[in-house]
Amino acid sequence: MNNPEGGAPFNNPESQRPDQEPSQKQSSVTEQWNTLLQDERVQQARQASKQYYSFFASTLARPYRTMLSVGSAQLQHALITLSLVAVLSSLYFLTWFLKWSITPAIGPGFLKPLLLTVLGLAIAYGAGYVILRLEKVSFDPKLLLARFGTLLIPAVAALLLAIIFLALSLTTFSMYLLFLSYLFIFVALNAVIFQYPIRTSAGPIDTLFTLVIANSITAYIFYKLIASVIAGAIGGFFGGLSPFGF
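The structure assignment produced for this chain is given below.
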């Protein structure tokens, strides 16, 4: 637009605004992102993730040897591993539901497996705790949990592979990996218990019977996990209750 007094033409402010606003928004988003990255809690989370990745990689090759050397200081790594086992187990079944378009998916395909997996892990650890108490063995509960979680590193790897193979439609092989990941839970339970001198103690119940009871209860929880997922899938297919009554 020309200046009526013959001077330099006026600049049109409306034509400049669209060019300035995107750059201002981009600058604001960049500043917010940089501020978030510099946040102390984010920095701690990044550091913890790096430490866990290093621990995971070294333990995956030598889980039993690593378990023998861990202390209660590795409790954080154990809790992360236990959480990953629960979440990945649930994601496997959720992938199953989504892949075959089974509805509803979130409740029976994710939340229920998540709760049952957490319950199974808690019972496995609790069984080890009770057995050692019955055997009158002196132990640190935090160290027991750290050792139990350390031995579950291979279970995390097996679950990751199971989800990948399921996504690639290699269903049978993915199910083998799923069962293998659950088998590691039983192995971890028994291996951790036998790290303590239970053979020399004089508990009120023979160790063989307590081990059978502990493994049977844990096995029942994971049986209910798989059975409930199958029942939910059947119910989703037929839009009603499962005929198996789970």
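Interim note for the steering committee: Residues 207-238 form the longest helix (32 residues). The chain is about 75% helix and 0% strand.
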